[in-house]
Design brief:
The protein is an alpha+beta fold and 106 residues long. The chain is 32% helix and 15% strand. The strands form two sheets. A two-stranded antiparallel sheet has the order 1-4. The N and C termini lie far apart (39 Å).
């Protein structure tokens, strides 16, 4: 229906940075692309949890990165999901590096 949905790709229980298949299955079913997105706070508290969740400190700058859409073919077999998972992971690590560089510039 044109709604926007955001999903944590490593699932609700992790492990951290392990892309789950659900995001790929949803993209296949809906025909919607996976758009890598990352937001990082310049200053934050890190929660002692499996995902090391960050809570931005008041008045800090928030930097965001939006990658290129990743389209998943409807006929992609499950044994090829690893290719899309690798693409997502690479894009998110690229985003992290770009945001770290942004912190240095400001």
């Amino acid at each position: 229906k044109g709604s926007i949905c955001a999903i944590t790709v490593d699932g609700p229980t992790g492990p951290i940075y392990e892309i789950k298949s659900g995001i790929i299955e949803m993209a296949q079913i809906t025909g919607a692309p996976i758009v890598p997105y990352l937001a990082r706070a310049k200053s934050s508290w890190v929660v002692n949890s499996w995902d090391k969740m960050n809570i931005p400190k008041p008045f800090t700058k928030i930097y965001t990165y939006t990658g290129e859409p990743i389209w998943v073919p409807k006929d992609l077999p499950r044994e090829k999901f690893h290719e899309i998972k690798d693409q997502i992971k690479n894009e998110l690590f690229k985003a992290k590096e770009v945001l770290i560089e942004s912190f240095k510039d400001n």
